[in-house]
Amino acid sequence: MVHITYSGNPIDRRANLRPNEDELRIIFTSGAARIVPVWSMKHLFDANPRAQVLSFTQISATVDVTRLEPVFLGFSDDVPWFALGLPDSDTPPTFGTGAEYKTLNEVVTLLPGTEASILAYARAMVIWHGNHRYCGKCGATAKPTEGGHSRTCTNDTCAHRMFPRTDPAVITLIENEARTHCLLGRQARWVPGMYSVIAGFVEPGESLEETVIRETLEETGVPVTDVRYLASQPWPFPSSIMLGFRAKALSMDIHRTDDELEDVRWYTRDDLRSFGKPGPYEAFRLPNPFSIARFLLNTWLDEEKGV
Ligand SMILES: [Zn+2]
Q1: What is the pLDDT of residues 153-185, one digit of tens each?
Q2: Which one of 79, 186, 243, 283 has the fewest CB atoms closer than 10 angstroms to its CB?
């Protein structure tokens, strides 16, 4: 199986331990726990720019953890792991490491895959807690429960429970009938020259295949069929999972009906291979190598024409 960045998490989640909050507190403060700090949606990395390795640390006495909300991630071998969201402040604690906070996408290409996946997990959990401080039903404060894998309303007559959510998004490589061209578009806010495959969020009441068909039609005007699932990627920016598909176009006529994309074009494999090289596509670029969009494109590029 091909590894996709942010997947392949080595942590055994040990969900059976989540209800035992006393035991989790003992584990958290035992000195054996590895704690992943998350501050302002950033993570702590070694300050050495030539060896930007992940810097996991035990929380020292410099931080009052009793006021924070650790999330039990699980165990890797015999080591317990927790994520810890730190309050926004001008000077986040670095625990005496001399390390610095960076966004995950800044350093992901330098990280071993297992570390990237642990950070994706930690980040998603901390962001979810930050966005669900209050009960969605009655508005009272909600507190973390089950080791941070749920939040429960503190209003006893309500006691509504909320669970971490993942928002599904489809991302699709669309090829023409002859399989010689694929359909790429670009959003105005992307870096100049970048084109990518077609993506969109799943809406309530539709299947994933229906989302692929609807989003492609809305964004490009191209009708598609033969929608096939290929692979997925956790995408905690802030809380998505990208579901990768391949689909076949019934027409090559492009008619954009919304403003999601500023440009849509068909490209051949040779076109894509010449992105960034001297010639007509010098100013063009493919999506980042750690994205499932790039995985879908690389898979297509590796195939022989017309197979
Ligand atoms: Zn409530």
Answers
A1: 999 999 999 999 999 999 999 999 999 999 999
A2: 283
Closest CA to 264 of 307, 207, 211, 215: 215
Distance 238 CA to ligand 1 centre (A): 24
d(CA 129, ligand 1 centre) in Å: 16
**177 with 287, same domain?**
yes
Residue 151 CA to ligand 1 centre (angstroms): 10
Which residue type does 9 have? N
**Residue pLDDT, tens place only, 225-282:** 999 999 999 999 999 999 999 999 999 999 988 888 999 999 999 999 999 999 999 9
- φ, ψ of residue 54 in degrees (nearest 5): -65, 135
Q: Count of domains in the chain?
A: 3
- The sign of the dihedral angle between the CA atoms of 90, 93, 98, 102 is negative
pTM for the whole structure: 0.90
The answer to whether position 5 is within a domain reads: no
Q: Torsion over CA of 222, 199, 3 and 43, rounded to 10 degrees?
A: 160
Q: 230 and 127 share a domain?
A: no
Torsion, Cα 13 124 64 17, to 10 degrees, reads: -20
